[in-house]
Design a protein that fits this description.
Mean pLDDT: 79
Low-confidence stretches: 1-5, 318-355, 373-380
Shape: globular
Order of helices and strands: EEEEEEHEEEHHEEEEHHHHHHH
Number of strands: 13
CATH class of the largest domain: Mainly Alpha
Strand order of the largest sheet: 3-4-5-6-8-7
CATH architecture of the largest domain: Orthogonal Bundle
Number of domains: 2
CATH topology of the largest domain: Transferase(Phosphotransferase), domain 1
Strand content: 15-25%
Number of helices: 10
Distance between the termini: 133 Å
Largest sheet: 6 strands, antiparallel
Length: 380
């Protein structure tokens, strides 16, 4: 794959060529290692992970395909940009991601095998290597999606979020890039939530970390944009944005902080043609998820999961094809010792056949003649 050798600026976040010593946007000096991702190929990290290929480059680090030297299998190895280790905030965020990884074990959350700080300049997290596609690619190809296809994915997302929230972890950067659809043999993808790199530990440094303006503005809850304390309902807002985009192929709000804080959300059915419109119950749920105030949103991920399951049942029940009675195949009745046999109602006795009218008249006439003959006989 092609990898662009740029790093985010340590001051403004703008892309900086890996070989540059100053940011071309703000002219801030870039401190520490500026090695491009390709430089890592063939190296062994911490004596345990041989780097084979570059899978991606993000705002905080690089993700490689690596082979575990001892086991011999392949894993995804996330390596924090070495220069970011000079930042106390980045070190703390890396620590929080490691804590989140250690706490979480759920089928809908990526599995982490190992995390450590090797020396002074290499922090890494080794996790399962997933085969499949990010949700972002699916939305790009298929949105606006049929809710019968999108809701099963959303329900699994709720399962993963509920597991994280149970451990006092708020993802804080839920977006299509961080939802992976793992391919399975039965054709039904398994959802994996990934990248808890800026997760908030609700029971660790709550007064500090929760007030950092971190995340992707498009998916950030209003309280997150203001830098207020957040809880699990911030993730539910992000889920609402994601579902809104998947069902309408439109943004829930504009791109700016002001739009997130104050912009109105158009009800989805006002954007969809009649054949594509969604059930009112689903529209109402989306509008609740996108409420500006967290108290107006559903209370937790499980409540959202249950509501989505109800909508899905409503949709699949209404959409189930019913064959016309006239073309139903005729089945021979079968019986089983364990199966009660439905008895047919008693049939009415068939009507008896009546003699023709002429035959009755003939018999009556002959009887009359015979009676007359007998009368004359006895009179004589």
């Amino acid at each position: 794959m092609t990898v662009t050798s740029h790093m985010p600026c340590q001051e403004c976040g703008a892309p900086v060529p890996a070989s540059a010593t100053h940011c071309p946007t703000c002219d801030a000096q870039q401190v520490g290692s500026a090695r491009p991702p390709e430089h890592w190929l063939g190296q062994t990290v911490d004596g345990k992970y041989e780097i084979l290929d570059v899978l991606g480059v993000g705002g905080m680090g690089m993700v490689f395909r690596a082979r575990r030297v001892l086991v011999g299998d392949d894993v995804a190895l996330k390596v924090l940009f070495p220069r970011l280790l000079r930042s106390s905030l980045q070190r703390r965020l890396f620590r929080d991601e490691a804590i989140a990884a250690a706490r979480l074990s759920h089928p809908n959350v990526v599995t982490v095998f190992d995390t450590d700080l090797a020396g002074d300049d290499t922090a890494y997290i080794a996790m399962e290597l997933l085969e499949g596609t990010p949700l972002k690619a699916l939305l790009k190809d298929e949105a606006p999606m049929d809710p019968r296809r999108l809701l099963p994915i959303a329900i699994q997302m709720c399962e993963g979020l509920a597991a994280a929230h149970d451990k006092h972890i708020v993802h804080r950067d839920l977006k299509p890039d961080n939802v992976f659809l793992e391919a399975r043999g039965d054709g039904v993808p398994r959802v994996k939530l990934v990248d808890f790199g800026i997760a908030a530990m609700m029971d660790i440094d709550a007064s500090d970390e929760q007030h950092k303006l971190l995340g992707t503005v498009r998916y950030m809850a209003p309280e997150q944009c203001r830098g207020d304390a957040i809880d699990q309902r911030a993730d539910l807002y992000a889920l609402g944005v994601l579902l809104y985009e998947g069902l309408t192929r439109r943004r829930a709000t504009g791109k700016s902080l002001s739009a997130v804080l104050h912009g109105d959300v158009t009800p989805p059915n006002e954007l969809l043609a009649p054949p594509k419109q969604i059930p009112l119950s689903l529209e109402n749920l989306l509008m609740r998820l996108l409420a500006k105030h967290p108290d107006d949103r559903p209370p937790n991920a499980r409540a959202v999961r249950d509501a989505l399951a109800d909508v899905l049942e409503e949709l699949t029940g209404a959409a189930a094809p019913v064959a016309p009675t006239a073309i139903l195949p005729t089945l021979e009745p079968t019986t089983s010792a364990a199966t009660p046999v439905a008895l047919s109602p008693p049939q009415a006795e068939p009507p008896r056949r009546r003699a023709p009218l002429w035959l009755g008249l003939l018999i009556a006439g002959l009887a009359g003649i015979g009676a007359g003959v007998l009368w004359e006989y006895f009179r004589a």
